[in-house]
Amino acid sequence: MPKGLQWINWSHSFISNPDQIVYPSTELELVQLVKKAKQTNQKIKIVGSGHSCSLIAATKSGYLADLKNYNKVIHFDTLNKLLTVQGGTSLKQIADFALKNKLALDNLGTIVEQSIAGAISTGTHGSGLNYGAIDQSIVSFTIITATGHLKIFDKRLNPSEFNLAVVGLGAFGIISTVTLQLVAHYHLKINTTTLSFNEMINKLDVAYTDEFMRFWWAPHTNKVQYWKATKTLKNTSKKNSFSEWFNNIVKGNMLHELGLWLTSFNFKNIPTLNKVMYKLLLAPETKDKVVNFLDGFTLPILVKQKVMEYGIPIEETEAVLIKINKLLKAKQHLVHMPIEIRFAPKNESALSMAYGTKTCYIGIIAYKPYGKVIDFGSYFKDVHDIFAAHKGRPHWAKVTYYNKEQLADLYPNWSNFKLLKQKTDPQQIFTNDFLKRLFD
Description:
Radius of gyration: 21 Å
Low-confidence stretches: none
Distance between the termini: 30 Å
Strand order of the largest sheet: 16-13-15-14-18-19-17-20
Number of helices: 14
Largest sheet: 8 strands, antiparallel
Strand content: 15-25%
Structural class: alpha+beta
Shape: globular
Helix content: 25-40%
C-alpha cells in the first residue's frame, strides 16, 4: 500500500500514518505479522476501538493492526464462569454475552465500545469501592511477543508477573486472548439526587458505604447529581424506549452538541448552557429504577471530546475538589460539564492508577462539537497541577502533562515494568513515540 494511509481515532485527536493497515481475524495472522515485522525491521502498533485520546495508539510508520475483526468468543467455562475471547472483542460484546447467559460483569465504566485488550492495557474502570477495574476481573491473558511466540500471564500461577503486565500500555506485545471472570446475574437498582456542591462534599463518606456510587458535578451551576446503585434480583422496571432515546440521544447528544458549538463562539454563554443541560439531563430524580447491569452502568456518548482523568488517594478527594472549585472562580475558567467523580478499590496491577491505594478518579472534559477543537489547554494544565500536588496518577488513555521521571516516582514498580518491556520486546517492535517518551 502507498504511504499516505491514515487511521484516525474516535475523538479525532490524532492521525496515524502507517505504511500498511491490516485487519487480522486469527491468531495465526497476528503471529505471522510479528515475524514479518521482525524480519523487515518494521514497527507494529495495535489498535482496538480507538477511544484513547492520548497518543498511546499512534504510529508514524510500519504496520498498524486494527483488531475490529479479531473479536470472537473462544471458550466459555460454564461451571467456573470463565470467558475467553480474542483481544479485539469489545466490552459491549462481553456484556451482551454475559446477559444472554444470565451472568454479569463485576463493574463497568460509562462506555463499553473499548476492546478488552485496550481496556485492560489502559486501566479502564467503573465506580464503587467494592468492585475493581476491568483488569481486576482478568484471570489470564496471552501475549504474542516480539519473537512471534505466545506468552501466558496467569494470575493463578504467577501473580507478581501478571500484575506487572496486565495494565501493559501495549508495551509487551499483542494481547491475543483474554480470560475474564464473569459473576452471578444481577440487576441494578438506581437512585439519583441533586445536591449542592457543598452538600456533596459533606457526604463524601457515602463512597465507603454505597455499593456503587459516582457523581457528576456541573461547573458554574453549584449542582451535583449524586448517583448510587445496588445489586438486586428484582425484575427490571418497565422500559420506555422512545423516552430513553429522546433523553439520551436527542437531548443528551444532539441538543447538547448544538449548544456546545454555539457557545464556542462566546465562552460567556457556557454557564448558561451548563445550567440548561443540567436541568434537562441530570436534575430529574430517579427513585429505585431497576435496569440490567449493562444499561445501568453505561450511557451513549456520541460527541467527540478530549478528556483528562487522574486517580488520587481517596483521602485527598475533598481537598482536590475544593481546589478545583476555587480554581474555576479565581481564574474564571468557563468549562464544559460534567466533571465526573468515581471511586475504586486498591489495585495490585503495577501501572494501575489505583495501585496500592483506594482511589478517587476525577475526570474533566473538553468537547469538540461537530469536530471543532476548543482550546482548554490552560484549564487542563491548571487542574493537572492540582492533581500532581496530591500524587495523582493519570489515566493512560487520556491527557497528562507528566514527564517520565515524574511518572516513575508515582509507580513503585516502574523500573520492573521497564525491565519486562526490554525482555519481551528487545528490538522495540511495539514501541511508538508514546512509549519512547515514557521509557527511553
